[in-house]
Amino acid sequence: MANAKKTSVFFCSNCGNESAKWMGQCPVCKEWNTLVEEPVGSGKNLKSGIKRKGAVSSDHAPSKLSAIEVREDDRISTKLEEFDRVLGGGIVPGSLVLVGGDPGIGKSTILLQVCRNLSADGHRVLYVSGEESLKQIKMRSLRIGDFSDQLSVFCETDLEVICDIVRENKPEIVVIDSIQTMFIEAVSSAPGSVSQVRESTMMLMQLAKSLSIAIFIVGHVTKEGMVAGPRVLEHMVDTVLYFEGDRFASYRLLRGVKNRFGSTNELGVFEMRTEGLAQVKNPSEYMLSGRPEDASGSVVCCAMEGSRPMLLEIQALVAKTSFGFPKRQATGADINRFNLLMAVLEKRLNLKTSECDAYVNVAGGLRMSEPAIDLGIVMAVVSSYRNKPVDDGLIVFGEVGLSGEVRAVSCPELRVAEAKKLGFKKCLIPKSSMDQAKRVKGIELLGVSNLAEVLKYI
User: pLDDT value at position 152?
Assistant: First the structure.
């Protein structure tokens, strides 16, 4: 019994760390109750691979960096500008892209639309589904439109069979829906387990790099909003996209949180319709639709999502509390930042906010964490507290410090230009950003350096 081989190990579902025994807390990421027991293989295949002998082929020889050529036209356009924006300009051959999101949010729909556009443009596309039958995919495709013969559909969960089909047909783009349904027979655990998800992703990554094929994999998310499986899954892929939005609302947000081929935190906006997902090319106008006029507690602010300026409405409601402890609630904004700004208002402007319940909401369902919306939150709260509306033609942005100062933010020129494009007449900005914003003509700029100067515009 002393020489019995270990048949299982414990993996952390958050960071992927491997441990010989179960522990309540992962020693690497310090998360509690994340270690999951998984069986291990014999490792015979690994040992045989180590003993390989012979000369190294030219395909595996090192290359000089100066001799590698990269062209902009190497990217493949999906014909969806919002999708291309989040990818950094298009699909890079040989890349591995992870698309995550809640069930029913539209992951399969948007990828099927991408496959339709790519196949219509002459690219060979393979759509692999482990969750739906061929008839179910056909029924869903009828809503989207006609498909080219360049698109092939394959229903299979054995990843080794899928890899053989890919090597045989050599498509340019492959979609795997979803990674939690795939399994490798050599891994003795159930599909969707930590070991299966990790090994399947590793096999797909090697396939994408060796054949220069762009592979999209769909990943389910947990109730915390993270992709199910080990967190190391996000480190293995080249790009991570999250599909967000309320299932009961019409809009969908495609957010890039990791991208080796472009900027992160880019945002694409789509609207769910009967025929699929339609692009929203002017999300600022879309988010401001239905904004009330001459209403207290409503302010338009400008935030940056990647390289895109986005106008949004910030609403606040301040009312006398009926209890000894005032309530604070923030929807779409950081609650800790909101509490900090409420303390600044009470200390620097002598507003009796400790006697009031206060609520703040970013209209449209967006979640914003950029400090540039601080000034918008402050003005909305003061406007509701005094029951005095803010000028409908005014837009604001700026970071608020603990001493009540209004600090500069990035890209003021782009923000002001977006406000001008949507017809705003005045822009309240930090005084330290005036020099850059003056390059935009046709809109009145109002510079402020502290909160005392802000009050006269309410």
Answer: 94
Tell me whether residue 57 is in a domain: no
The enclosing domain of 347 has a CATH number of 3.30.230.10
277 plus 290 within the same structural domain: no
Q: Domain range for residue 38? A: 8-43
> Where is average pLDDT lowest: 260-274, 315-329, 369-383?
260-274
Number of structural domains the chain divides into: 3
Mean confidence (pLDDT) of the chain? 86
Confidence at 1, pLDDT banded by 50, 70, 90: very low
Percent of the chain predicted with pLDDT > 90: 51
Please indicate, yes or no, whether residues 247 and 351 belong to a single structural domain of this protein. no
Q: Are residues 267 and 302 in the same domain?
A: no
**If DSSP states are collapsed to H, E and C, what string results for the chain?**
CCCCCCCEEEEECCCCCEECCCCCECCCCCCECCEEEEECCCCHHHHHHHCCCCCCCHHHCCCCHHHCCCCHHHCECCCCHHHHHHHCCCECCCCEEEEEECCCCCHHHHHHHHHHHHHHCCCCEEEEECCCCHHHHHHHHHHHCCCCCCEEEEECCEHHHHHHHHHHHCCCEEEEECHHHCECCCCCCCCCCHHHHHHHHHHHHHHHHHHCCEEEEEEEECCCCCECCCCHHHHHCCEEEEEECCCCCCEEEEEEEEECCCCCCCEEEEEEECCEEEECCCHHHHHCCCCCCCCCCEEEEEEEECCEEEEEEEEEEEEECCCCCCCEEEECCCHHHHHHHHHHHHHHCCCCHHHEEEEEEECCCCCCCCHHHHHHHHHHHHHHHHCCCCCCCEEECCEECCCCEEECCCCHHHHHHHHHHCCCCEEEEEHHHHHHHCCCCCCEEEEECEHHHHHHHC
Q: Which residues pair with residue 426 across a beta bridge?
A: 394, 444
pLDDT score of 41: 56
Which one of 247, 262, 281 terminates a domain?
281
Q: pLDDT tens across 119-129, in order?
A: 999 999 999 99
Shared domain for 108 and 234, answered yes or no, is: yes
Residues 270 and 303 in one domain: no
| Residue 62 pLDDT > 80 | yes
Do 253 and 326 reside in the same domain of the chain?
Answer: no
Q: Which tens digit of pLDDT belongs to each residue from 90-139?
A: 999 999 999 988 888 889 999 999 999 999 999 999 999 998 999 999 99
* Mean pLDDT, rounded, for 349-355: 89
In a shared domain, residues 21 and 128: no
Same domain? For 184 and 326 the reply is no
